[in-house]
Amino acid sequence: MIFDSVYYSHFQVQSDEEDDAPLTKKHLKELNEKIDLLLASSSNQQSTLSEAALQKIVDAFSRAQHDSAASVTAAIQASTRACEAATEKVDKLLSDASTLLQSLQESADATKASLEPMVQQLVNFVSSELPSFATLRQTISDDNSVFTVSIDARLAKLQEDLATERSLMDDLAIKTTAVEVKTTQLSQSQQQLEDLRSEREVVKTCVSDVHAVISNILEAHDPILNFSVRRSLAEKLSPAIDLLNKVEGLPSFVSIPKQGGDEKTGSKPPPSSKATHTTEPSPTDQTLGSGVKYKGKNVAEDEDEEGDKETIADILKRKNSRKVGEDASRVAREAAEAERKQKEAHDLLESRKTLFPAGTRERLIKEAIETPSILWLEPVISFDCNNTVNSQFDMPLTRKAFIFHVFSNIFEVPHPNAELDRELIDFYLAAARPQFLTWSAQKIVNVWVLKPYTEGCFINVRLKLIRRSARTAHLISLADLPNLNPHDWIVLYNILLTNEAEYGPILDHVKRMLICYIMEVALMDQEVATVFKKKPKIAPVGSASDLNQMLLGRIDPRRNTVMFTRAEGQKCLFALADKHLYTTTCLEHVLFIVKRCKENSADDVKYFEDMINWYIRFRQTILSITKCLFSTVKKKVPASAAGPSN
User: Fold this and answer.
1) Of 39, 177, 290, 413, which has fewest CB within 10 angstroms of its CB?
2) Cβ-proximal residues to 590 (8 Å cutoff; 6+ apart), any chain
3) DSSP code per residue over 386-397
4) How many CA atoms lie within 13 A of 71 on its CB side?
């Protein structure tokens, strides 16, 4: 069988990886295999196919190959035209770039030519002015030295004046206090003098009455009273009469009858300082008998006695009315003070209810287990760092205290434990009092431990606390510890430590509470974590994206941030919420920069200063109790029970 040769136009056959190509090597290979198979079958089996059929097959293959070659040729031509157009554009761009560079070079040469004289002139001018600058600098330095000496002298003089003024103020305060004391004593003395004068009037009236009665007895002409009896009465009553005369302010008078008549020596004193003298009764006006009655008193004496009685009544009435008025005023003041204290207590209770809202189970689980806050290192109500009887240091609260494994029956259980943690929250909700009734800024001064009892799966103990100098009593239990100021835990531990043998289990409970709290702080604080050879696990909150736009030491009140520089000159961003991630030295450096910046408002500076000083004090407190507690419990406390780890 004779086959005509087939002509293939030369072109690059596409590779097998390009599936979209019109003809690939794979296609040619498959086609050759089919032709070889056809030829082999034809030669081996002596196929009866006609030459015309074979010719048709070859023609079909030739047409397909020709069509494929034509499509490839068209694609190559189109690509060639695209390349030529791109080449033209690139040539044009190169020409434009060359023109631009040439113009820039010409402009740079022209600028250089114009600037060189100016630069040279500036150099000459600066060279000529350098001596002037040096002279000016020396002059300013000398003036600054003189000014500094003058300021120092003035400051020294001012300090002396202030010391003198302070001593004068102290002397004035002492004298003012002495004057106030003397004034108070004088007012009290005047009040006592008024009381004594009133009593004196009463006593003088009574003395006058007694004096008159005794005088009438001695001057009586009753025959029953013989000479010896009257003389004896006069001798015995003379001291009393002298005393009455002294009280009344009259001269001494003693009436001693003589034998042989009723003549008397001396002048008769008036019976009363206010009453008029009575006429001596005649013997006919006397009545004989065992009782002596005087019928000879005139009407004037009766009227004087009635006047004396009214005077005494008026004095007593005035005195009683003054006492009643003072009592009424005192009762009114006490009632007003009690009402004021009751209103203050009510307002304080309402404010505490707002500050410490009632906790529900869902809320506690969310805040203590699911999404605990990382911004809890702040005081509750006060930045005050003092620690007195009436106020104590305000340490931050954490909701994770409700899931601390501090009870003796669960202390060894590793943390966290979802089932046990929820059981602890249920216990605290059932046994604890509301936080607004237990949290206090007043210091505990004494503790009484009451009888323990079982609450659910845990043993609870009631404690009676005495707070502040007013010594008000408060009843709490171990279930209230998470709601207390953590500084109360420290005070409780120190008080109970005085009787360690009796209060050992309670001491261990409070100790474990403090340890868990310290470990919780160590997860966030830089220096506390360093004590345990760890690093804080909390990422910073502040972002340094706009650091270059901030002024050194200028406070951003919206985010409470400030830019500062380290010793090597590196710019850093300090956010007040990230204070726990900086050392105490760095915090003091930031505070110094903030105070030095004059563009900060007084309120912003005060807030930064109060917060940073408070946190430094808090960190020092934690570090001090850490040295004490972990030196005694390091071998006893397992790592799994030292506090939450997340």
Assistant:
1) 290
2) 562, 564, 574, 582, 612
3) ---SS-------
4) 11
| pLDDT recorded at residue 230 | 59
Most confident of 78-82, 336-340, 583-587: 583-587
Pairing of strands 561-565, 472-477: unpaired
Which residue has tokens 């850093």? Answer: 572
Output the 3-class SS for 282-302: CHHHECCCCCCCECCCCHHHH
Whole-Å CA distances, 307 to 274, 279, 280, 314 = 9, 19, 22, 10
- Measured over the CA atoms of residue 602, residue 608, residue 610 and residue 613, the dihedral's sign is negative
DSSP annotation string for 127-140: HHHHHHHHHHHHHH
> Is the distance from CB of 594 to CB of 603 less than 8 angstroms?
no
| Among candidate residues 506, 505, 508, 499, the one with its CA nearest the CA of residue 463 | 506
Question: Residue 402, CB half-sphere, CA atoms under 13 Å: how many?
Answer: 29
Residue 542: CB atoms within 10 A of its CB come to 19
Question: Rounded to the nearest 10 degrees, how much is the dihedral formed by the CA atoms of 480, 486, 487, 490?
Answer: 80
pLDDT tens digits for 160-210?
Answer: 888 888 788 878 878 887 787 888 788 778 878 877 777 777 676 666 666
What residues contact 9, with CB distance under 8 A and at least 6 apart?
69
What three-state secondary structure class fits 573? Answer: strand
- Joined together, the tokens standing for residue 94 give 């190169």
SS3 567: coil
- The C-alpha angle 600, 603, 604, rounded to 5 degrees, equals 50
Q: What are phi and psi of 629, to 5 degrees?
A: -75, -45
Calculate Rg over the CA atoms of the chain.
57
The single-letter code of the amino acid at 442 is Q
Question: What backbone torsions phi and psi does residue 432 show, to the nearest 5 degrees?
Answer: -85, 150
User: 299-355 and 51-218 are packed helices; what angle lies between their axes, rounded to 10 degrees?
Assistant: 170
Residue 204: closest CA among 255, 136, 252, 250: 250
Between CA 289 and CA 224 the distance in angstroms is 8
Tell me what pLDDT residue 1 has.
45
Q: What distance lies between CA 593 and its chain's CA centroid?
A: 23
- Tokens representing residue 616 in the block: 């430094």
* Structure-token match 């505070």, residue found: 591
Q: Is 14 exposed, middle or buried (0-12, 13-18, 19+ CB in 10 A)?
A: middle
Q: How far apart are CA 117 and CA 509, in angstroms?
A: 86
- 459 by Cβ neighbours in 10 Å (0-12 / 13-18 / 19+) ranks as middle
What whole-number distance in Å separates Cα of residue 134 and Cα of residue 210? 110
* Average pLDDT of the residues of the chain: 77
Q: Which of 484, 642, 519, 529 is nearest to 493 (CA)?
A: 484
Residue 166, CB half-sphere, CA atoms under 13 Å: how many? 6
Specify the length of the chain in residues: 646
Q: Can you give the pLDDT at residue 19?
A: 58
| CA gap 257, 227 in Å, rounded | 7
Structure tokens at 141: 């330095």
DSSP assignment string, 420-483? HHHHHHHHHHHHPPPHHHH--SSPEEEEEEEEEEEETTEEEEEEEEEETTTTEEEEEEGGGGGG
**Over the stretch 288-308, which tens digit does the pLDDT of each residue have?**
333 333 334 444 444 444 444
How far apart, in whole angstroms, are the C-alpha atoms of residue 10 and residue 625? Answer: 93
CA–CA distance, 267 with 280 (Å, rounded to integer): 13
Strands (E), 560-609: 561-565, 571-575
Q: Are 427 and 403 in contact (CB under 8 A)?
A: no
